[in-house]
Backbone:
């Protein structure tokens, strides 16, 4: 039976190439474990108690055994889903996704990274993609305010992220392409009549902005000025995300690469691989400072439940006890954990809110200096608290 599957797979290896197969795997939450250049090793989503399947997919068509290796990979994927190879070929052909790979090249004495670093890494990647999506939807967007419906739909429905597995720390993001739309403007080339899909616009913006950010950080001779860099998509949330990603102890570099779905022509030439060394990441502090001056933080009002209390021994200037709280609040249509320092009666109210599970409303300057969101110069709205505690 296995021999028949491989023979059948050989018939489809001429139709289903390695690029389309990896795009399919990425949309199914498979994860790239090792990239050898000429081949990649992918693993299926792990199931508790089950043996995780690993498959080698050849990428260099010049290899003497490229065809047999690809046939074997198709056969093993078919076996994983209990499909015929013909059915798999149909599923693969139906998939079109741009792939974004993030690799953290970091010294690891035991082949692991801290759980909090891994969690922050996923959040940082989400921040970068959100920034690119907002810029693609509106080139003049600052990243604040309500998120457009097109961006929300893209983030919620079209972006799939495969979690890294032990020892690899290569995170795969698959951004599924929506069908291209016909542009109203006439064109001589029929292909040019199709406007780029929103997904392709987002991923192109992401690649261009990462490349421009690297140029500005390294102060290269061909680097654009700050205004042109912003026009190319460089934004403060993306720079801060890169700073956070590169803050791990022992980091050597951040390697980010793109693989474009062949179903849609890439109209805009952009870098497909961006590598930021530790030295480049450290230079991002200067880029961040320049962007802050261009786009200073604004005052916002957040509301949500108190999910954590951190009582401290510190005292404010009046000798009143103070402490930090963590508020779970909506920031740009995404739930965030926000650290807020309160003192005196404000902190007592936060304790009661945590105990009795009622929300707090706080106004201040929202910022993300590192991995965590903070609200500076907070002012607590006591109206709901006073209403709850008024005499009945």
Residues:
């Amino acid at each position: 039976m296995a021999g028949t599957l491989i023979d059948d797979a050989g018939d489809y290896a001429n139709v289903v190439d390695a690029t389309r197969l990896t795009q399919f795997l990425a949309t199914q939450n498979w994860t790239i474990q090792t990239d050898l250049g000429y081949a990649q090793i992918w693993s299926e989503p792990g199931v508790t108690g089950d043996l995780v399947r690993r498959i080698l997919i050849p990428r260099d068509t010049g290899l003497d055994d490229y065809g047999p290796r690809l046939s074997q990979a198709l056969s093993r994927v078919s076996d994983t889903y209990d499909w015929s190879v013909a059915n798999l070929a149909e599923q693969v052909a139906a998939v079109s996704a741009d792939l974004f790979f993030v690799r953290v090249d970091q010294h690891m004495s035991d082949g692991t990274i801290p759980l909090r670093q891994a969690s922050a890494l996923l959040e940082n990647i989400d921040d970068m993609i959100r920034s690119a999506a907002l810029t693609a939807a509106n080139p003049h967007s600052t990243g604040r305010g309500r998120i457009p419906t097109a961006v929300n739909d893209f983030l919620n429905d079209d972006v799939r992220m495969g979690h890294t597995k032990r020892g690899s720390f290569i995170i795969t993001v698959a951004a599924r392409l929506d069908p291209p739309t016909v542009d109203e403007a006439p064109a001589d080339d029929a292909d040019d009549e199709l406007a780029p899909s929103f997904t392709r616009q987002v991923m192109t913006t992401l690649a261009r902005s990462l490349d421009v950010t690297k140029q500005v950080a390294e102060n290269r001779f061909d680097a654009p000025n700050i205004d042109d860099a912003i026009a190319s998509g460089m934004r403060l949330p993306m720079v801060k995300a890169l700073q956070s990603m590169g803050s791990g102890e022992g980091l050597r570099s951040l390697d980010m690469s793109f693989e474009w779905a062949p179903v849609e022509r890439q109209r805009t030439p952009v870098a497909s691989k961006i590598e930021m060394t530790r030295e480049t990441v450290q230079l991002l502090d200067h880029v961040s400072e320049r962007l802050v001056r261009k786009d200073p933080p604004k005052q916002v009002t957040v509301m949500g439940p108190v999910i954590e209390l951190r009582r401290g021994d510190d005292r404010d200037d009046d000798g009143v006890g103070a402490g930090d709280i963590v508020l779970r609040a909506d920031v740009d249509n995404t739930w965030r954990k926000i650290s807020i320092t309160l003192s005196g009666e404000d902190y007592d109210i936060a304790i009661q809110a945590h105990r009795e599970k009622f929300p707090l409303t706080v106004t201040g300057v929202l910022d993300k200096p590192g991995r965590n969101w903070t609200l500076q110069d907070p002012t607590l709205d006591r109206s709901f608290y006073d209403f709850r505690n008024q005499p009945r």
In short: The first strand starts at residue 31 and ends at 35. The chain is about 40% helix and 30% strand.
